Amino acid sequence: MNNFREKCEEVARKLQDYYKTEDGWTVAKKTKDGATISYRTSNEFDGYLYKGECMIDAPPATVFHFVDPLPDGPRGKWDSDMKKIEVIDWLEEPELRVNRACTASACMGLISPRDFVDIILTKETDSYISTNGVSVTYEKCPEEKKFVRGFNHPCGLICEKIPGEPNRTKLVSLIQPDLGGMLPRSLVDQAIPGSMAAFFTELKSALKKNGAANS
């Protein structure tokens, strides 16, 4: 358990470094509702680190509640990519857990459903609330035939608090997934920015629908 916490604390440090590093990013996509998706070469594996950023008109705690991948939270209801969310074990409730997330197929079925088993640490500081995760091999959660097991290199969501604007949040998503299987790199690189852009659009719609966004 201590080893898992140490891993996640290291992930948290890496995510802050990724976020604060301004150089080396290439913009892949911008949306009409203000989201920007960028990428750079990952230091973790032979792929890309992706960053999505968007201002959200809702308080950080509300935004975090909507994006935190928990089975009894809103995320599974509004996120079309997320088909199932499970907590396999609470290691230190409510901060540290082992999660399993199952994703939908993508690119008209060319990318089949994936599942990811991650340790996730929730952190809150004066500046932000965040999830900090990385995939692990966990004996209670063996691979299933109907899913390709993917691997999330250090990843997370940062709900940044805006000084003087308690009802606004800068939401940052940092991901670097290895989707596994025999997928062409070009297909993965095409799919991820669009999926990240849809995440922000769907989140804003869900917040508005639930009356959680500021008018």
Helix-strand blueprint:
Blueprint: H1 2-20, E1 26-30, E2 36-41, E3 48-56, H2 60-67, H3 75-78, E4 82-92, E5 96-103, E6 114-124, E7 128-135, E8 148-149, E9 151-152, E10 155-162, E11 165-175, E12 177-178, H4 185-209
Parallel strand pairs: 6-8
Antiparallel strand pairs: 1-2, 2-3, 3-11, 4-5, 5-6, 6-7, 7-10, 9-12, 10-11
Radius of gyration computed on alpha carbons = 16 Å
The number of helices is 4
| Percent in strands | 35-45%
DSSP summary, beta strand count: 12
Low-confidence stretches: none
Order of helices and strands: HEEEHHEEEEEEEEEH
The amount of helix comes to 25-40%
Beginning-to-end CA distance, first to last residue? 43 Å
Mean pLDDT: 94
Q: Helices and strands: which structural class?
A: alpha+beta
Biggest pleated sheet: 10 strands, mixed
Query: Which descriptor suits the 3D outline?
Result: globular
